[in-house]
User: Which sequence fits this backbone?
C-alpha cells in the first residue's frame, strides 16, 4: 500500500460521511497517473501554491490602492486569511482540509490589478464581459504553465468558479470557502479601514456589534463558531438566521462606509483610466503579448479575451510600469 492509499484510508475513517473523500474525486480534465504520496486535493493545493499566478497576488490590491503603510492587506494576504478561516471550519466539521485549502488558495487567481476597480473596467470594455471568478478558473485551466494549465480536479475547479455569494459550490468544502471569503474580507477590510482612519470601532452600528461582537476579533470568532455550530452533523454549510442577518448588515455597512467611500477609494478613477488605456493599447498591438496567450486565438478565443488574459494577470506594479513606459515621457540625457 502506498502512502497516498494509507492517507485515503484514514480519510474514510476520520472524515464525515458527506465530506469529499480524495479517492472519490471526479477526476481531472486530463487523466493523470495518481501520485504515490499525495492524494489528489493535496496535489492540487501544491500546484496552486507553486504557480506564478499565486505569487503575483502579493502585488495586487485588496481594497486600498497604493496605501501608505506596510500592514495593509494585499490580495495574497487576503487569500491566506481565507485559507486559515476555511481550514479551521473544515477541520472542526471533519471535512477535507486539502480540498478546502486548494479552493481557498485558488479562488482569486484571476483577479485584476487594482482589485475590483480593474475588474469593473474589463467587464465594461470587453464585449464578452469579465468576472474574476471565471478568470480564476481560466487561469488554472488554460493560462498557467505557459498555456498548459494546472489540470486540477473537478471539485477544486468547481469551488474556484462558484465562490461568489450568488453561486453555490457542489462540495461542502467549496461552500466553506464561499463563506470564509466574505468573513475574511469583512474582518480585514474593517481592520484596514480603522488603521487608515476611514472608520472607528465605534462607528460600526450596534445592530451589528450586539450580535457579532464589539471588536474585530470577537466578530471573526463569532462567525467561525456560528458556522461550525449551525453546520455540525449536517450535510450543509450555513450560518444561523440571526448571524446571517447581522452578516448582511455588516456587508451593507462596509459597502457604504468603505467600498464606495470617496476618501478610501479616491485613487480608483486613476487606476480605472490606466487599465482602460492598457486595454485599448494591447488590442491594437496584440503581437507584443506572450506567444502562449496568442495561441489562444487558434483555440477560438477572441482578441478581446486574450487582452483581458494579459491585463488581468498583471500586478499593480507591472501595470503602472507598462503605462509609464507607453504614455509617460522619459527624461532625455545627453
Assistant:
Amino acid at each position: 500500500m502506498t502512502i497516498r492509499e494509507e492517507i485515503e484510508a484514514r480519510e474514510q475513517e476520520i472524515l464525515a460521511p458527506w465530506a469529499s473523500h480524495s479517492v472519490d474525486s471526479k477526476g481531472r480534465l486530463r487523466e493523470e497517473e495518481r501520485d504515490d504520496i499525495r492524494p489528489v486535493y493535496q496535489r492540487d493545493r501544491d500546484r496552486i501554491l507553486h504557480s506564478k499566478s499565486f505569487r503575483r497576488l502579493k502585488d495586487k490590491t485588496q481594497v486600498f490602492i497604493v496605501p501608505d503603510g506596510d500592514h495593509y492587506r494585499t490580495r495574497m494576504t487576503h487569500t491566506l486569511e481565507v485559507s486559515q478561516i476555511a481550514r479551521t471550519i473544515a477541520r472542526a466539521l471533519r471535512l477535507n482540509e486539502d480540498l478546502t485549502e486548494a479552493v481557498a488558495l485558488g479562488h482569486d487567481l484571476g483577479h485584476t490589478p487594482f482589485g475590483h476597480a480593474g475588474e469593473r473596467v474589463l467587464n465594461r470594455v470587453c464585449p464578452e464581459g469579465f468576472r474574476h471568478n471565471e478568470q480564476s478558473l481560466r487561469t488554472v485551466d488554460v493560462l498557467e504553465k505557459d498555456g498548459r494549465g494546472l489540470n486540477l480536479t473537478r471539485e477544486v475547479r468547481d469551488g474556484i468558479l462558484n465562490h461568489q455569494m450568488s453561486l453555490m459550490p457542489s462540495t461542502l468544502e467549496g461552500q466553506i470557502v464561499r463563506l470564509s471569503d466574505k468573513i475574511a474580507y469583512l474582518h480585514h477590510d474593517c481592520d484596514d479601514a480603522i488603521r487608515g482612519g476611514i472608520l472607528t470601532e465605534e462607528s460600526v452600528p450596534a445592530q451589528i456589534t450586539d450580535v457579532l461582537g464589539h471588536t474585530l476579533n470577537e466578530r471573526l470568532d463569532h462567525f467561525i463558531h456560528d458556522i461550525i455550530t449551525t453546520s455540525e452533523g449536517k450535510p450543509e454549510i450555513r450560518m444561523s438566521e440571526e448571524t446571517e442577518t447581522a452578516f448582511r448588515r455588516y456587508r451593507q455597512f462596509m459597502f457604504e462606509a468603505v467600498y464606495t467611500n470617496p476618501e478610501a477609494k479616491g485613487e480608483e478613477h486613476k487606476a480605472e483610466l490606466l487599465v482602460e488605456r492598457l486595454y485599448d493599447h494591447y488590442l491594437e498591438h496584440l503581437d507584443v503579448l506572450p506567444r502562449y496567450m496568442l495561441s489562444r486565438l487558434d483555440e477560438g478565443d477572441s482578441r478581446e479575451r486574450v487582452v483581458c488574459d494579459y491585463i488581468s494577470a498583471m500586478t499593480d506594479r507591472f501595470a503602472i510600469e507598462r503605462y509609464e513606459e507607453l504614455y509617460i515621457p522619459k527624461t532625455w540625457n545627453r
